[in-house]
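Second opinion, please. Pick holes in both lines of this record:
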Amino acid sequence: MTIEVANESGIGVDEHALISVARYTLDRMDIHPQAELSLLLLDVEAMTELHIKWMDEPGPTDVMSFPMDELDTARRPDEAGPGPALLGDVVLCPAVASTQAEQAGHGLDDELHLLTVHGVLHLLGYDHAEPEEEREMFGLQNDILDAWRDDVATGRPAGRE
């Protein structure tokens, strides 16, 4: 699985942890091991521009997802048909995440891990516009994040290599 990180935010982050939690999420969702994902970290100004352009909403946001291929091209490894796919981009704004982390009473890393899982799930077609969708997506997000944290804490490998 190829996961590229480009940090253009001006804020230092643990890129290895972001890759680890993204890879773990894709593994848990049975996405082909040769799928590709991009994580882009932007400053407030650049994120604001994206948020306005693509969501027609003012101000910056914490995370946005931009799918590249149709989801059905990112099949499970045991399925016939197309295999690897360029899944898309997850765009994070560490400055916004920092404010949210402070309000939530945890660190920036924890918030970025949560937002990475959230963004990957959006790439995979999950949404939270309706209450039922929100329960499903946020439940899955929390399950994945808790399992990843447990694996990291116990030294178990977090995802396929």
